[in-house]
Structure formats: C-alpha cells, structure tokens
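Researcher: Batch entry, complex prediction.
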Amino acid sequence: MKTFKKYWAIFQITLVNSLAYPGELIGRSLLIVPFMWIFYQLWKVTFSAAGSDAINGMTLYSTMWYLMMAETIELSRPALARTISDNVKDGSIAYLLNKPYNFLLYQFSNSIGETIFRALVNAIFGGVIVWWLVGPPPAPIGWLFACLAIFGTWVLNFCITCLIGLSAFLVEDVSPFMWIYQKLIFILGGFLIPLDFYPGWLQVIAKALPFSAMIYGPSKLFVSPSIGLFANVLLMQSLWIIALGATLIISYRRGVAYLTVNGG
Amino acid sequence: MEVDLTPALAQGGRGGKEVMKELKFLFAVWQANLQSLMEYRVSFLTQVIGMMLNNFIYFAIWIIFFDRFKEVRGWGISDMYITFGILASAVGLAELLFGNAFTLSEIINQGRLDYYLSLPRPVLLHAISSRTIAAGMGDFTYGFVSYALSGQFSWDGLLRFVLAMLLAAIIFTAFIVLIQSLAFWMGIISNLTSLAFNAIVTFGIYPITLFDNYAKLILFTVIPAAFVGAIPAEFIREFTWRTLAELLVGAVGFLFIALTIFRLGLKRYESGSAIQIEV
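Model: Structure tokens for the complex:
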C-alpha cells in the first residue's frame, strides 16, 4: 500500500503540473480541429462517391466519431521515448536510478499523469467539431467501454515507447524507431482509416497485433459498443501487455547492467 | 549624348561578386554540416533509412485507401505518388539545406541570434543554413522513388520534378521562416510552429479536389499547402505556363513576406549575451 501511495503521489504531481500551462495544453490540442475537418472532407466525398450511406457497417457519422476517438488517443501520447532516450544519452538516468523508487513505475506514473488532461482536452475539441459536422456523439455506454479500453492502450503504449527509449543504451538515435512505431499505429492501428475498410487478409494481420488493440479497439467500442468486442479488446490488450511488459522488464535490467555513467 | 555606364557596371559587378561570395560561404557551411554528419555515420544512415521506411509505411495507407475506393474526385493512387513525392523531396531539401529554419523561434527566444549578428554575413541565411537534418536525406530521396513509382515517369517530367521541387522547397522554407519569425513578437510559440508544420504537410498530401473554394483560398494563402503538393504535382504531370507562373509567384511572394517579417522582427530582438555559446 505504501509503495502504491508513492507512485500515486508522483502521478498526482504530474497531473497537476500538466495544468500549470493551460495555454500550452489548449494550443497543443488545437491540432485535432484541422485534422477532423480534413477527415470530414475526405470521407464525405468518399461516401458520396460510393453512393451508399454505409460501407462495411460504417456510416459517415460512425467513421467521424471513430476517427475523433482515434485522434484523441494518438495526439495525447506523451513523448516518453524521447525523454528516456535523453535520460540515457546525457547520463541523467543516473539521478533517477539512485532514487527510492522503481524507474519504470516512476516513468509509468509520470506518463499517465501527463496524458489524462491532454486526452480530455483533445476529446473536447475533437468532440465539438465532430458534433458540429455530423451530429451528437454515440450512446454513453460507448464512452464507458472506450475509456476502460483506453487505459489498456496507455499501458501498451508505455511498454512500447519505454522499450524504444531504452534502446538508446544500444543505438545513438532512437528517432527512426519512434517514426516507424507511429506509422505502424497509423496503418495497423486503424488510425487514419478504420480497419473495417481494409482487405480481409490485412484485417486478420492487423487485429492480431497490439496496434489495433490500442487504437481500433477503443475507437470501435466507442461507436459500436458490444460486450463481445469489449471482451475481445481486453483479452488482446492483456496478452500484449504481458508479452511486452516482460520484454520491457528484461530489457531494462540488461540495459542498467550495461550502463556506464561518466562524470559526477 | 554619351552616357558613362562605368559606375553602373561596376556596381553590377560588385553585386555579382557579393552574390558569388555569399554562395561560396553557403556552400562552405553546407560542406561543414555534411562533414559534421559524417562523424556519426551510423546515426546518419539509421535516420535516412528510417525516414524512407517511415514514408513508405505512411504511404501504404493511401495504397489501402485507393485500393478500396479507387479514386476521389478524379484523383487516383498515381496522383498521390507524385503529390507525396514532391512534398517529401521539397521538405527533405529544406531540412538538408536549412535545418535551423525549423528551430528558428528557439534560436530567437534563447538569444542565440547574437552569434550570427556578430559575424559579417546575412543573419537569416547564416542562421538557417547552419544545421542539416540528417533525416531530410531520407525524405529527399524517397520523393524521387515515389515519382519513379507513379507510373507517370518521363525524363522531361523528371526535369519538371526537380524544378517544381526547388520552387516548392523555397515556398516551404519561407513559410516555416515566416511562422518561426513570429517569435520576435510572441515569444515561445512551439505550439503554433508545430501546428503550422503539421498543417502544411498534412494538407499538402491530401487531394486538392476534396476542398471547396473557401478551403482552397486558405491553402493558397494562410497555409500554402497547395504550393508544395497539388500545384507542383500538376506541373510535373503536364507543363503549363499557368502552373509554372503560380509556383514562381508563390516562391517570390512567400520569400518576400518571410524576409520582411524576419527583418521587422529583428528590430525587436533582444540580445541574450550569448555570442560565445553557439557551436
């Protein structure tokens, strides 16, 4: 319980810190507005050209709300990999390692604290513009399922970005890994196009990977909530959290053993 | 009546010499940047290959989209290859030659312009050309590959691609400098610069036929995405004097506005007493 309190306090401090610069918070979230507007233009023309109100079970309305949720998740991700990689490269990790807390749990509490208000403000801006474009949001049960699944997304994202950040123990620059991770989220997560529009074979591959459990799962739950889909998303997230979490712990232990810090 | 042209010719000659001098200096700066990058070859190669892979994966989304929906108001996958290609190469060229343009607002806010002001060289040109972004080589190269894969490749098209890329890179760099120079008045503007960068790159990739007339007006002025995506792509597909004129006017216009804004802003610049720290 005492251990939990420690990380809860770290989480609270970061959460309050994230509100210290409201202008920064709002400014950062404004990006979702032009994105949703472009998506609306693209999908309005696409649905109109298809001559149908629904394509593979998705309407313009559900596609727009799906994309709003997907954008909210993606745009709220903290730049954890860069932070950790900088910590490793400039040696400041040494100051974090000798503190009375677990480095990974500290980073996790920090990243969740940083993400919550960012996600909330993105959802507000995105929600307002999509409401204005296509009408009111889906049923409240969708919000509930999506919010629960988003927590799993944050844990998965933490595992992957932390692994990328820790790769700075081995390589000089981790940016290419970040770009590629982001693009895998884009394509296999269903970030720009819902997976429902993909060819069957690609849907099977995408749905077996963690990226779809991070973006497609929560976003689809938001617009088409069902117990079956909810259970499936949670199962996929749990399996990937176990696999990636174990990889992260092993990599971290090896990385710390490999660490050499010069100077004082 | 005889007119003595000697002073005018001498002045013209001096102007030409000045330009040559600045060009020589610029090439020396780029050479130094390149040598600096080559000190970390593995990192350089990782970034170049990583960026090419990144672009390829990003473009795969459009392949999936057009495989499913075939075309959007007359735009097909072939047009997307060209649009994506020209945008990637233009952005890549800007990153390679004027890498500091992307962080100019930080340089202004941290008082690091002192270093450039203390030297007898054009301040803006020296400041923005003093860094090369390695990943730019990945973008630059990928653009040519994308054009080659478009199915509309031709040798005269390649010449148009190079010309359009140069003009699009001027417009893109000018737009970035213009936005970053607002730091003279607004201080820390990381959100605005990030928003502007993402907006021009994102809007630039999307088919121009999606947008109505009001949106198009924005894409030619406030966010000149049409000048770095759709218009150069149109010029590459088929030469017309109209598209060439549009690109030239865009390049001259945005360059003029960017230089004016930077000069006006420079009058408000406050020294950071940081002459010694720029390396």
